[in-house]
């Protein structure tokens, strides 16, 4: 069966993403018209336009869209597993732990591995701790979220201690990791994110039906032949992978993982798990946040993580005060 609404929603989000991408390529300190952008992308533009698009804005756009899609897809998976819209990688501490490990690598606190590798390790460690502290509830219930909040707070404190105890130059080098920025992207990290997002998205689609059954009562889930334990572990691994790789490129921009799935869930078929729509929504929000950060106070640039926090924090507060955290309500 083909869900026509999903096709329309995903097609619309794709067109919006393309429009946002063109705007990101065209707008900036040097404005380029859309026709000139298209010519430059075809290799027919001026030397200046080609340089700006291929060396500056193009890689930044790619990194932002990939990171946004990964954050939002990870958020959709984790919210589904926990049946709670607050259970995103940022809120349960995965972002902060990944950042702490990456900062430790940058400032050289006894760690020599690459920052993007350490970010992935940090995400895995935080998830394992949260899962262990949650005990029998696993990813379900508030115990998992509270454990994650504590891990995130401790990780944030450790990050600040490391930054305050190293030389100023080292602290400045690590600063982008603490606020979320697309300036610190490394080609190796972006390449790893491309592979990770392709693998993670493909596997999440295979899990889609099983994830949908997890929304039903446990006896019904078992009667349908779904091995809920294995599905939860698989979904959690994918969330960790996507979050760690996204943090390794953009830093902790975790509110995209809250806003992207929520936007997708609002416009998608009720009761569905909008994996594709979430990824597209996250990419759109990240690209728009980065564009706003570059334009609002130009030539001064505001990191994308700060813009996302300004946009996402009021919505998070609104959820806490006026909306049920249960994604099925």
TrEMBL record:
Transmembrane annotation, as ranges: 64-82, 94-113, 119-137, 144-168, 188-212, 233-259, 271-288, 300-321
InterPro entries according to UniProt: ABC_transptr_permease_BtuC
Keyword Chloroplast: no
Keywords in alphabetical order: Membrane, Transmembrane, Transmembrane helix
Pfam assignment, any one: FecCD
PANTHER family in UniProt: FERRIC ENTEROBACTIN TRANSPORT SYSTEM PERMEASE PROTEIN (PTHR30472), FERRIC ENTEROBACTIN TRANSPORT SYSTEM PERMEASE PROTEIN FEPG (PTHR30472:SF24)
Name used for this protein in its record: Iron ABC transporter permease
Organism: Marinobacter salexigens
């Amino acid at each position: 069966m083909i869900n026509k609404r999903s096709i329309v929603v995903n097609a619309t989000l794709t067109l919006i993403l393309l429009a946002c991408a063109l705007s990101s390529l065209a707008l900036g300190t040097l404005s380029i018209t859309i026709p000139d952008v298209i010519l430059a992308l075809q290799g027919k533009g001026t030397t200046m336009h080609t340089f700006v698009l291929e060396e500056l804005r193009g890689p930044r756009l790619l990194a932002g869209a990939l990171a946004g899609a990964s954050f939002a897809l990870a958020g959709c998976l984790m919210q589904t597993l926990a049946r709670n819209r607050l259970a995103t990688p940022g809120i349960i501490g995965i972002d902060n732990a990944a950042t702490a490990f990456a900062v430790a690598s940058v400032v050289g606190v006894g760690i020599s591995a690459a920052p993007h590798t350490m970010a992935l390790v940090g995400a895995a460690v935080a998830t394992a701790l949260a899962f262990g502290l949650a005990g029998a509830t696993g990813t379900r219930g508030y115990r998992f979220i509270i454990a994650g909040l504590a891990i995130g707070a401790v990780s944030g404190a450790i990050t600040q201690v490391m930054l305050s105890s190293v030389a100023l130059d080292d602290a400045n080098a690590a600063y982008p990791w603490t606020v979320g920025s697309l300036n610190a992207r490394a080609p190796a990290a972006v390449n790893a994110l491309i592979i990770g997002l392709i693998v993670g998205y493909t596997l999440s689609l295979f899990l889609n039906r099983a994830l949908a059954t997890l929304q039903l009562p446990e006896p019904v889930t078992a009667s349908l032949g779904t091995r809920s334990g294995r599905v939860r572990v698989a979904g959690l691994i994918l969330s960790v992978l996507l979050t760690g790789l996204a943090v390794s490129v953009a830093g902790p921009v975790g509110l995209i993982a809250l806003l992207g799935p929520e936007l997708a869930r609002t416009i998608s078929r009720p009761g569905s798990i909008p994996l594709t729509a979430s990824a597209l929504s996250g990419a759109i929000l990240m690209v728009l946040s980065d564009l706003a950060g570059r334009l609002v106070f130009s030539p001064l640039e505001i990191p994308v993580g700060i813009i996302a926090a300004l946009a996402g924090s009021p919505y998070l507060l609104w959820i806490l005060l006026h909306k049920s955290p249960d994604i099925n309500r």
